[in-house]
Amino acid sequence: MVQYYQTRFDASFAALSDATRRGVLEQLGRSDASITDLAEKFHMTLTGMKKHVSVLEQAGLVTTEKIGRVRKCRLGRSRLEEEAGWIERYRQLWDARFDELDKIVEELNQKEKTDGRNK
Questions:
Q1: In what order do the strands lie in the sheet with 62-67?
Q2: Ranges of H-type helices in the chain
Q3: Taken in order 83, 87, 88, 93, is the CA torsion positive or negative?
Q4: What integer pLDDT is reported at residue 97 of this predicted model?
Q5: pTM for the structure as a whole
Q6: Exposure pattern of 57-94 as b/e (b: 16+ CB <10 Å)?
Q7: To which H or E segment does residue 74 belong?
Q8: What is the tens place of the pLDDT at every residue in 67-118?
Q9: Which residues pair with 66 in a beta bridge?
Q10: Residue 28: closest CA among 15, 10, 45
Q11: How far apart are CA 62 and CA 54, in angstroms?
Q12: Contacts of 5 (CB under 8 A, 6+ apart)
């Protein structure tokens, strides 16, 4: 089970690591589009956009359907809920660590003020 999530997370995060692919997801969030339309919008070759869409499709973030000679793209079923949960757990961990660090810094500042008055 852990291996499944790692593989899925790897595919999701790899797909999201590219600005163009994030832009494609943003665009498809507004409306479905053909690969040709996306290529034009992002000033790319059709081949380049097909590669980006393929990465998004493998991660489950986009689905494509061939309608006649046109390949239409739309958002996929993956809503990134597990990935968001994973990120949230680490955000909470880091928040807790920074809160502890803030306490230590505050204690050191108070000690420094107290030591300065005693001199």
A1: 33-34, 70-75, 62-67
A2: 2-16, 19-30, 35-41, 46-58, 81-117
A3: positive
A4: 94
A5: 0.76
A6: bebbbbbbeeeeeebebeebebebeebeeeeeeeeeee
A7: strand 70-75
A8: 999 999 999 988 888 889 989 999 999 999 999 999 999 999 988 888 777 6
A9: 71
A10: 15
A11: 8
A12: 82
Q: How many CA atoms lie within 13 A of 15 on its CB side?
A: 24
The one-letter code for the residue type at 95 is D
Tokens 């070759």 appear where? 45
What CA–CA distance (Å, rounded) separates 119 from 114? 9
Bridge partners (DSSP) of residue 65 are 72
Tokens representing 14 are 């790899």
Structure tokens at 111: 């000690």
